[in-house]
Design goal:
Length: 320
Amino acid sequence: MVRIASATPETIAEAAAVIKNGGLLGLPTETVYGLAANALDGRAVARIFEAKGRPSFNPLIIHVAKPEDAMAFGVFNDAAKEMMAAFWPGPLTMILPRTADCPVSDLASAGLPTLAIRCPAHPVARAVIEAAGVPVAAPSANTSGRLSPTTPQHVAESLGDAVDMILAAGAASVGLESTVLDLTGEAPVILRPGAVTPEDVARVLGITPAIDDGQHEAPKSPGQLLRHYAPRTPVRLNATTLEDGEAYLAFGPSLMGRNLPDMHKRNLSEQGDLAEAAANLFGYMHALDGAGCKGIAVAPIPDTGLGIAINDRLVRAARG
Ligand code: TXA
Ligand code: MG
């Protein structure tokens, strides 16, 4: 069995050693758990792709301990500097041109001239990266195409012995992967909605970014090509009634599903709070997916603010 260790100064030092030695680490971040390896070490990065069953054309996000550390790897234009000041450390990934002498493994960025970079807010993630002394490549720590992990147990269930160690720091507080913002073009484009919303970007840059969900000929984010966030159980969205045999994922005060057994229902947020719903989403999908129902009916979620990111993941789950 893979070792799951609670984060302490000692286990953080051990985790940093796993990274330095070319190993794979289950790393807590505020968004989801990552599968982390030394981004400068092509062989370590190759192990990430192998463990996840991830196609090698799909590039990884590079994580740094301090915002300014990112300047060695990506070329920051004015917009990128403003976004960095406003949202790092935090759940924002920026797509930027690679610096001329960028030492990050080409495999990590799938041979692209651009790089996805993020400075996570989680103190454990930052401490591990700082102690490792190298940038860390980390996709979500799940088998490619499946639900992202928000707890150390999800990581163990999905990847098991393919990981050298899992550092545990409770459930991820945001619960959805970071916003991916492409700043390499004329105007900012959101390639993956997340906790940094289009309104947040507009407030800082003065331009409302387009959202490109990749459902067209030439997706900008290779990850958009793939089936994503798919539970095994079929998902039905915007459900206002329940069919026989379905589990129910509610949002807000709801009497629907009151006759279902507890294991067949969850409420993302009784109060209708989108941040609470985002934090609960993947954990509840994991739980209902394991309940053996013929389908999962999901209540309508408002498509504003953080609801845009929640609906993005739900639409992909339903498409799977
Ligand atoms: O919250 C997160 O971002 C988590 C935690 C662990 O930090 N990581 C994560 O990584 O979600 P991953 O690999 O599951 O998603 C990265 C996304 C993929 O859709 C990938 O295609 C896209 O970012 N991406 C990476 N590099 C890119 C690039 N150079 N250009 C466009 N998209 C890129
Ligand atoms: Mg992922």
